[in-house]
Specification:
The chain is α/β, with parallel strands linked by helices. It has twelve helices and 14 strands. The strands form four sheets. The chain has a seven-stranded parallel beta sheet, sandwiched between helices. α1 packs parallel to α2, α1 (10-22) packs across α12 and α4 (92-106) packs across α5 (111-121). The relative contact order is 0.15. The protein binds guanosine-5'-diphosphate and calcium ion. Residues 8-9, 33, 36, 47-48, 199 line the site of calcium ion.
Length: 307
Amino acid sequence: MNVVVLSGGVGGARFVRGVVDVVEPREVTIVGNVGDDLEVLGMHVSPDLDSVLYALAGVADEQRGWGRADETWHALGTVAALGGETWFLLGDRDLGLHLVRTQALRDGEPLSAVTARLTRQLGVEATLLPATDDRLRTWIATAVGELPFQEWFVARAARDEVDGVRFEGAGDATAAPGVLEGVAAADAILLAPSNPYVSLGPILAVEAIRAALERRRVPCVAVSPLIGGRAVKGPADRMLARLAGGTSPAHVAACYPGLIDALVVDERDAHDLAGLGDVRPIVARTLMRDADSRRALVEAALGGVRA
Ligand code: GDP
Ligand code: CA
């Protein structure tokens, strides 16, 4: 069974670990968000791709939810002592990957090719693809002006309310090699419980990817990132309240018009299934606290496919 998963960082990485427990990893293709990518200290960092990569390679820091386990911070300490920029945290183990990727990109290798090499080197069997090899960057409109994604998310801790989201470069971006082929060969498409606006939004802003999902002949199932109307982590609930007018399952589904056939909603949101239209609700426990709960959530989502 070939499965394609559209994924952001933390929530996506947790979910994807469950997917490769349920589906043969070689038959799993993950399409990752690159709208969060940035240059830090001269290096190209792809935070969402790396969260998925580290999770699948079994080297992620599960407590923190991002970066690598057993991390140390000596390089960043030196940067601080020398008056360099330290707002974006990069650990020593993490840095090694950014060095390799940055050099490859400077030598002209596309991001998808570098990513494929990194996943192989780390022993990951699933296919991890950036949505696009082209430059695509998320901008956040706020009362203090339009901010680059990471300035809003990390430097300002996502405290500014969001008035709008823009994906620079999306209009001209083409899908990375393998993305459209993966979708065409899929028996099921899953949207991870990632932030609909800033994690899955940039992927769906690539016109060819959105069109491929619109044309799908196989079920597409999204998993809500909200439990009891609240995000498990991050600003998704505040963004939905402000940009969509609410945090019900119908508000989540409305982020994916014409793109999904079913939405997995948490038991705690099952009292409010009005307004879903032809999107079928699948009620499940959606908190991913360990391997069993991750697997059960994926089974529930795929149960929606088999039904
Ligand atoms: P980011 O790129 O690191 O911000 O990560 P994502 O966008 O992939 O994931 C963030 C979203 O994951 C948040 O909206 C969370 O509510 C959601 N999330 C995190 N853990 C869980 C979980 O265990 N269950 C569900 N349903 N959502 C989760
Ligand atoms: Ca992200």
